[in-house]
């Protein structure tokens, strides 16, 4: 049995390596187009399932596929990865001094089973100045991350509190994933 991570995310790769898992990376090529008029939970479940299914089409039945999708949800709208520095600044200004939700959908395909689940974590930012936002964007860190920030990097300076799974904010809720992997026969401990 081989584990395949259906994601090109360096953070997801680091998290699986931290668990000591042997795996290969095969990012899904499909776009991250969220379903229209869907809430955060449905959005991440649909997107993670699409990634897992795409990679499974080119994999043998002996493989375990792990796919995930993470979004930031604020005021009833999705904040995905910014397409420009201006959009990143707009997102960070919206998050400044506020609490928001981070949702990750996880799909695990293996042993003839399809498991999916969603994790929600609340993150509270302190108030950010325009200078801090500009300096953070200049690091390049926010450009490939949902909501334009990475809580494990420079943006850790902005996070006043987290309620829920910290690793969910990094893109892979490890407690939930561990349970799902155990259900398809992958033991982590």
UniProtKB/TrEMBL annotation:
UniProt keyword annotations, A-Z: Cytoplasm, Hydrolase, Nucleotide metabolism
EC id: 3.6.1.9
CDD domains from the UniProt entry: Maf
Principal localisation: cytoplasm
Record Pfam families: Maf
Signal peptide annotation: none
Keyword Hydrolase: yes
Reaction(s) the record says it catalyses: UTP + H2O = UMP + diphosphate + H(+); dTTP + H2O = dTMP + diphosphate + H(+)
Class of this enzyme: hydrolase
Cofactor or coenzyme needed: a divalent metal cation
A GO molecular-function descriptor: nucleoside triphosphate diphosphatase activity
Entries under InterPro entries matching the protein: ITPase-like_fam, Maf-like
Gene Ontology process terms (BP): nucleotide metabolic process
GO cellular component, one term: cytoplasm
Localization per record: Cytoplasm
Feature type site, description Important for substrate specificity: 11, 70, 152
Keyword Cytoplasm: yes
Functional summary from the UniProt entry: Nucleoside triphosphate pyrophosphatase that hydrolyzes dTTP and UTP. May have a dual role in cell division arrest and in preventing the incorporation of modified nucleotides into cellular nucleic acids.
Family: Belongs to the Maf family. YhdE subfamily.
Record protein name field: dTTP/UTP pyrophosphatase
Species of origin: Candidatus Scatomorpha intestinigallinarum
